[in-house]
Design brief:
The complex is a heterodimer. Chain A has 6 helices and 9 strands; from the N terminus they run H-H-E-H-E-E-H-E-E-H-H-E-E-E-E. By secondary structure, chain A is of the alpha+beta class. The radius of gyration of chain A is 18 Å and the shape is globular. The chains are: A alpha+beta, B mainly alpha.
Chain lengths: 217, 554
Amino acid sequence: MKFDGAVLYAALIHELKNTLGVLSMTIESIPMQNEPAHDHPVDAARLLCQEVVDRLQQALLVYKANNQPIHPAIDAYSPHDMVHELRDRTAALSRNRLRVEATLNPDVPAIWFLDRDLIEMALINAIHNSLSYARSSIRIEASMAEGCLALTVRDDSDGYPEHVLTSVATNTPYRATGTGLGLQFAKLIAQSHDNRGRLGELRLHNDQGAVFSLLLP
Amino acid sequence: MSLPSAQDQEDSFDFGALRALVVDDSPGMRSSLRLTLSNFGVTKVQLAANAAEAIYQVKNKPYDFILCDYNLGEGRDGQQLLEELRHTNLISVETVFMMVTAESYYEKVVATAELAPDDYMIKPFSAEVLCHRLKSILLRKRAFRDIFRHFLAQELEDAIAACDILIRNQPKYVVDALRFKGELLVTLGRFEEAETLYQQVIQMRAIPWARLGLARSLHLQKKDEEAEEELRDVLERAPEMVAAYDLLSDVCLAKKDAPAAQVALERGVSISAKTVRRQQKLGEIAHANGDLDTARAAFTNALEKGRHSIFITPSDFGNLCRVQLEQGDLKGVAETLKKNRSTLQASPEGQLVTAITQGMSHTQAGNLQEAAKALDAAAGLRAAGTRGDANIMLDLASVCMASGRHDEADGIVAEVAKNAHDSELLLAKARRIYDEAGRTDAGASVLASATSEVRKLNNEGVVLAQRGDYKTAVEKLQIACSEAPFNPRIMMNAVWVILKYIDQVGMDAKMIEDARRHLEEAERQAPGHARISGLRLQLRDVESRFGVNRASQT
């Protein structure tokens, strides 16, 4: 049999992702003991594990997108459902360490056309960031901006460092690790959403914390 | 869980009453999914390790919610399970079916399949996400309650009206309701309206399923050039959309381009090889194209992927053996028969396929005594009323002729021809058999006398009906039906005139019973034929106007 490194690589990531999924569930089943020396490390392990799972999901995407554009599977989804689902997911990840809120502007339509998996992947990345840096709260928002649906993750951290903001705004690469890698991704995902020539965008700014927005045409 | 009543709170659900089935081949995953479900109150949970177990459980008791892993190890996968459950009506449109997959690529392949699950979950996922997704499906089903009620009662016009209400009143479900309405319009043969509807969705956004729907409604209006253009463009953007290859192959066949139809199916198979019907179709087209290797591989795959599948019939074994015989691979034929012996012996149709195949194989090998034994067995089965599909019956005729059993052969050909008087493909095959046996003239006369009577009765019946003489038309077509009891076109015409007659003269209990029976036979012979659903609706309409209580019938 021919050794197919690429296929093996994808299969391996898959398996890692699934194993980590099980590990993550195992950690969740460790009961809290109301004792910081025990609870804090367990909690940290749980979060970290979730983050690795989400990152592996990206790794698979990169692997598939290798040298070819991302093809989003567009369908009609409810921004309302998405925002509330993400809020609950975030609340579960933060385990009451942070206040997690959802805001829906009244002008957001009942449905929007997007690739739910890709968009959630990008947003959950931003959420992991906020979980690490936010002081006390995270807000997930849906609103309309320039005719696009804007899905936003907002926290009360110190905000993005200047070089990250510049690089995303000017499209100049910087050494992408950790947060940076996730942002590159989010950008690719946003741009893959094309509606009659209008492309989606990733916008970052600081406003009493980090503000991460995906604009979807 | 019974469907919630209108008085229910807007989005409250009694998860404790929800009867759930978890299907996963890994015991660890099964119990962890059960745990996940219990996190939000779904506690009535049964477990199944594979498709066969799941079907067994669903047959035993109804479920409201099935959570199924796509990959079920050996045997059928989750998508095949879903297709079987829906096709056999073991679960209805009201049952929630969610697929669990390891990666998002699945969505692209399967979401546009003919039968899509209500939603899918990418592993691993948390209880919160599952709970949200389930809730939103249940809310959607609740919004669709009136549509489903009419749909299940086969009141398709009313179902469409209910879709329109939903489209007007609930923006959240506009796209879902349009999708459902599009399928209803196609079922009712209202292809032009379907085309308009899909254009309307595409105006919002060119989503793949809408473009596929558009191509389908174009194809059904015989606008095959436009359909092909649409499909080729869709596939350029979404090359993994298997359903588009299936449709493209139909379009190519309609354009009489069988090689292109084969190419389309081969590409579909290369993406998703597990669908039995795709393999069957590829086998048939490749066989017609003379590409025996591809045909053999496809028929073999169909049997392997479809082990225990409801989509496999004795014809599939016959198809594979026919190709093997044409390849001169008698050993292969013997192996196929041996390997599937118990399946084939289990039904008279299977026994007939075995006998015919053995007859052909022995004839080819020159074992005339053995061949005669097999043909006797086939004759015995036929005398007892067993029939195979038209192709295998013509095989039987051919081998009978080769053994000098001319009368028997002529009888079989006449029977096939009567029941397929308008199928050029089958009649041509029959003529070829006579040509090869050097009995061209005899063949011409057998075919002419077999088809002329049926054709005459049918034409007379149709003309009489068009003139408004339904009574005589019914008489003619009833005779045609007894002459050609498996001819779908005759059956459908008979149903049509009977309904016209009753409409004019009044209810006739025996006739409506005949109409019902003819329609069932037509459906068996030509499943999914475009006229059938329309006739079924007319039948129901006549029954309800004349107050026939269907509940008393079975």
